[in-house]
Backbone:
């Protein structure tokens, strides 16, 4: 698999964005009303574009300790749509650079990888927000925590080596032979996250979000039981985390 695998995801994001933008083009009197469990009317939307960045975190055969991490950047862009006063749906594309050294110095393994992830998700906001109703009784909420769950694909391309330092301009390690010959490879991913959003203006918000993604592969680090015993410690699949600060912009918000 190659990065072409993500073209359908990007196309879906663009088409969905255009469709939802057109749907919100009319005035409030032309928008369809929906009703919650207390028969209170609300409008769906608006579309929010998201963009953020932070750190990527690896959890796998080599380590789960922060002390062993080669922390790398994580960047995410996407969109989300309010379907109910407590629910949003959306899609995101992320770039995450992961890396770590072995927690066993005697074995002395390490890796670094470049990863692309595309996911769809649902987001649940437990607190009540009057600003989302057709006839609000109070001002919109300034602070909203949320839980998030999704599914998607991750395209991963790792390189394992022996050493304890991050590859850099001054250090080029002797990379080990790859466990498979089809990197970059594709795996399923199931992200779970928690965060909170602060409303800065009616159209702009900022959120801090932590996400952990389970994957269907044990080769996110190019180290697994598929290789020699000296290169593996566990048959469990690898995972990764992201801690990001994001901006949420709703250009058609009222």
Residues:
């Amino acid at each position: 698999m190659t990065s072409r695998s993500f073209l359908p995801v990007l196309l879906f994001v663009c088409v969905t964005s255009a469709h939802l933008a057109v749907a919100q083009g009319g005035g409030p009197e032309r928008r369809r009303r929906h009703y919650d469990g207390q028969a209170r009317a609300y409008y769906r939307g608006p579309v929010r574009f998201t963009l953020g960045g932070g750190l990527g975190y690896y959890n796998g055969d080599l380590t789960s300790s922060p002390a062993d991490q080669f922390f790398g950047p994580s960047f995410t862009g996407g969109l989300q749509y309010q379907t109910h006063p407590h629910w949003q749906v959306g899609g995101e594309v992320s770039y995450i650079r992961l890396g770590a050294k072995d927690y066993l110095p005697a074995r002395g393994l390490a890796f670094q990888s470049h990863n692309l992830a595309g996911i769809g998700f649902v987001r649940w906001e437990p607190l009540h927000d009057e600003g989302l109703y057709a006839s609000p009784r109070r001002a919109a909420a300034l602070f909203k925590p949320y839980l998030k769950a999704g599914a998607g694909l991750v395209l991963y391309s790792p390189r394992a080596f022996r050493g304890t330092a991050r590859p850099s301009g001054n250090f080029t390690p002797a990379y080990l032979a790859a466990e498979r010959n089809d990197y970059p490879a594709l795996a399923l991913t199931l992200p779970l996250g928690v965060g909170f959003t602060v409303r800065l203006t009616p159209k702009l918000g900022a959120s801090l979000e932590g996400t952990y993604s389970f994957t269907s592969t044990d080769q996110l680090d190019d180290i697994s039981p598929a290789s020699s015993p000296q290169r593996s410690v566990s048959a469990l699949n690898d995972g990764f985390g992201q801690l990001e600060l994001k901006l949420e912009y709703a250009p058609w918000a009222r």
